[in-house]
Amino acid sequence: MAREFSAGGVVLRRFRGKWQLAAIEPRRDAANASQPRVLALPKGIVDPGERPQQTALREVREETGLDAELVGKLGDVKYVYRRTWGDGQRVFKIVTFYLFLYRDGKLGNISDEMRHEVAAAEWIPLDDASRLLSYRGERDMAKNAIEYVRAHPELR
What pLDDT was estimated at residue 30? Predict the structure, then answer.
């Protein structure tokens, strides 16, 4: 079984006294156009020579258009999937997620090269993220972020 290592970010901001999370809608191909909308966290493969924290920050910038400050690691999501391209091989994947605080940038201001991966980006209420995000592991990371901000009132 092949292995893949990715990293992603949970980017938070305070807006009108409430925490919000930056989410993306991955672009779907025509074959999946009739499927329900997917709301996800920015993430991607760890490149050679790159540390997971660097990957997470790079993916946040590329997929959301935001600059953010690393707070710390939130956790790992582990799962197995089957490639829908090429060899169709089963893959064991680990995605390490990091918590970031928004610093600058306009959500959705991404390069043309990224438009083939990301259809849209939006702020969603952190308290609703565990219901709105499409993937179970990412919903768990949103719950971890809620616990973190509750335990660290200095972030307010």
Answer: 60
